[in-house]
Design a protein that fits this description.
Layout: H1 11-25, H2 32-46, H3 53-68, E1 72-76, H4 78-83, H5 85-94, E2 98-101, H6 108-120, E3 131-132, E4 143-144, E5 154-156, H7 164-170, E6 174-178, H8 185-189, E7 192-194, H9 198-212
Parallel strand pairs: 1-2, 1-5, 5-6, 6-7
Antiparallel strand pairs: 3-4
Helix pairs in contact: 1-2, 3-9, 5-9
The structure holds ligand PTJ.
C-alpha cells in the first residue's frame, strides 16, 4: 500500500481508499467496490466523518441484539473483507457468530480469496455460499450456507444496498447493517441500521459487546 503521511488532513480517508485499491489488486474486492466506497465517502462528508450520537445508540442496540441471538451470522463481502478483516473476525469470536462469505458480483475465485484472506487474519472457520436458499431474490446473494445465513436468526450485513435485506426480513430473520447511506434499501429495511463508516463503527461495536459481556 502507498504510504500516506500521518500529518495529512485526510489521512484516515486516504488510507481507507488505499485498502480498497489493494483489495481490488489482490482480487478480493470487486472493481465496483471502488465506486461503493466513493458513494460511502460522500455520505461520510455530510456527517463530518464522525460517529453521530444516533449511530452510537444504534451500536448499543446492535450489540444487545447480537448477544441475544441464538444463531448470529456475519456476512462478509469484498469491501468488508479488506476494510475491517481483524474487526469482523474479532467480532465473530467475541459474540460468538459464524462468518460467511456472501458477494453480489459473482466470482467463485473472489469468494475463495475472501475466505483465504480471513483465514490469514486468524479466522478459524469461514462458511461459503453453497445453495440458493435465500428466497425472494434471483442474483448471486441468494446463495448461502445451510449452516450459516440460512439457519441464522440474526444476520449482520454491513455495506450493501439491494434486496437481500428485505428478503432476509421476509424469512423472519433480524438484520443489522452498517451503511453510510441512510437511504439505501438495506439501511431502510434493516432491523437495526448504524449510519456510520464501518472503519469507525466496528471497533465501537466490539467495545460495546465487551462491556455488555
Ligand atoms: O463484494 P461484492 O461483490 O459483494 O460487492 C460489494 C459492494 C459493496 C461493491 C456491493 O455490495 C455494492 O455494490 O454495494 P452498494 O450497492 O454500492 O452499497 C454499498 C453501500 O455501502 C452504499 O450504500 C454505501 O454508501 C455504503 N458504504 C460504502 N462504503 C462504506 C459504506 N458504509 C459504511 N462504511 C463504508 N466504508
Amino acid at each position: 500500500m502507498k504510504k500516506i503521511p500521518k500529518s495529512h488532513p485526510r489521512y484516515e480517508s486516504l488510507m481507507t481508499r488505499e485498502k480498497i485499491v489493494k483489495g481490488v489488486e489482490l482480487g478480493i474486492t470487486s472493481q465496483h467496490g471502488l465506486i461503493a466506497q466513493g458513494r460511502g465517502e460522500a455520505f461520510d462528508y455530510l456527517i463530518k466523518e464522525r460517529t453521530t450520537e444516533k449511530a452510537k445508540k444504534k451500536i448499543k442496540k446492535a450489540a444487545k441484539l447480537l448477544l441475544k441471538a441464538k444463531y448470529p451470522v456475519i456476512s462478509v463481502n469484498g469491501n468488508v473483507a479488506v476494510l475491517a478483516p481483524k474487526e469482523v473476525i474479532g467480532l465473530s469470536k467475541l459474540i460468538p457468530a459464524k462468518l460467511e462469505v456472501n458477494i453480489f458480483h459473482k466470482s467463485k475465485e473472489r469468494e475463495e480469496r475472501i475466505k483465504e484472506w480471513l483465514i490469514k487474519y486468524g479466522a478459524k472457520e469461514v462458511l461459503m455460499p453453497e445453495k440458493p436458499l435465500i428466497k425472494f431474490i434471483e442474483h448471486n446473494r441468494r446463495f448461502c450456507n445451510p449452516e450459516g445465513i440460512a439457519k441464522a436468526d440474526v444476520v449482520f450485513v454491513p455495506l450493501e444496498d439491494g434486496d437481500r435485506c428485505k428478503a432476509l426480513i421476509k424469512m423472519k430473520k433480524k438484520v443489522i447493517t452498517v451503511d453510510l447511506n441512510p437511504m439505501s434499501r438495506t439501511a431502510k429495511a434493516a432491523t437495526v441500521t448504524i449510519v456510520d463508516n464501518i472503519t469507525r463503527a466496528l471497533p465501537l461495536l466490539i467495545e460495546e459487546i465487551k462491556k455488555l459481556k
